[in-house]
Design brief:
Keywords: Membrane, Transmembrane, Transmembrane helix. This is CNNM transmembrane domain-containing protein. This protein starts with a helix and ends in a 15-residue tail after the last helix. About 85% of the residues lie in helices and about 0% in strands. The chain is mainly alpha-helical.
C-alpha cells in the first residue's frame, strides 16, 4: 500500500509540475505578447491587477474546497439544482482541486505578476526618467502588499462562505459542461466525505 501511495504521489507531483509548466508558458507568452503591443502604463497596470486577482480568486477556491462540507450540497443535488453535482465533484477531489488552485495557478500568477511588474518598471524608468531602484522597490512592495493582503482577506471569506463558494464554482462548471461537454470530475453518487 505504501509503494502504491508513493507512486501516486510521484505521479501527482509530475502531473502538477508539467501542468504548471504549460500553463505558465501559455499565460506568460500571452501576457508578454499583450504587453509588447500596448504602450499604455494604465493598461499594463490593469493586466497586472487581473493576474493578481486571478491568483487571489483561485486561492479562495482552494481554501474553500478544503473547508466546505458536503451536507448542504447533497440537499441541493437531491433537488437537482444545476451545479450541485459539480460542486460535490470538487469536494470529492478536494486534494487535487486545492493543490491545483493554490499551488499551480497561485504560483503561476505570482511569477507572472513579478514578470509584468518588471516590464512596467522598465517602462516607467524609461518614460519618466525615474530612478530604477526606487521604481523597482515601490513596484515590488505594491505587488507584494496587494497579493498578500488580498489572499489574507480571501482566506477569511473562503472559510466563512466555503459551501457557497464551492456551489458557485459548481455552477460555473455546470455552465462549461453544458457548453462544451467537458466534465472534469465523475459525478457518480458516493458516500459523503464530511458530515
Amino acid at each position: 500500500m505504501t509503494r502504491l501511495q508513493g507512486r501516486s504521489s510521484w505521479k501527482n507531483a509530475l502531473t502538477m509540475g508539467g501542468g504548471t509548466f504549460f500553463i505558465a508558458l501559455a499565460i506568460g507568452y500571452g501576457s508578454q505578447v499583450f504587453l509588447g503591443r500596448i504602450t499604455s502604463i494604465i493598461l499594463s497596470f490593469t493586466l497586472l491587477m487581473l493576474i493578481i486577482l486571478a491568483g487571489i480568486a483561485f486561492d479562495i477556491v482552494g481554501v474553500a474546497t478544503a473547508a466546505a462540507s458536503e451536507a448542504p450540497l447533497h440537499a441541493r443535488a437531491a433537488k437537482k439544482i444545476p451545479g450541485a453535482r459539480q460542486a460535490l465533484g470538487l469536494l470529492r477531489n478536494a486534494e487535487r482541486v486545492a493543490s491545483f488552485s493554490t499551488d499551480v495557478v497561485g504560483d503561476v500568477c505570482s511569477t507572472l505578476s513579478g514578470a509584468v511588474g518588471a516590464v512596467i518598471i522598465l517602462r516607467l524608468a524609461g518614460q519618466h526618467g525615474a530612478e530604477d531602484l526606487l521604481v523597482s522597490t515601490l513596484m515590488t512592495a505594491v505587488i507584494s502588499a496587494v497579493t498578500v493582503g488580498g489572499k489574507a482577506l480571501g482566506k477569511g471569506f473562503a472559510l466563512h462562505q466555503a459551501s457557497d463558494i464551492i456551489f458557485f464554482v459548481g455552477r460555473v462548471l455546470y455552465g462549461v459542461e453544458k457548453l462544451t461537454g467537458w466534465r472534469p470530475f465523475n459525478h457518480a453518487p458516493q458516500k459523503g466525505r464530511r458530515p
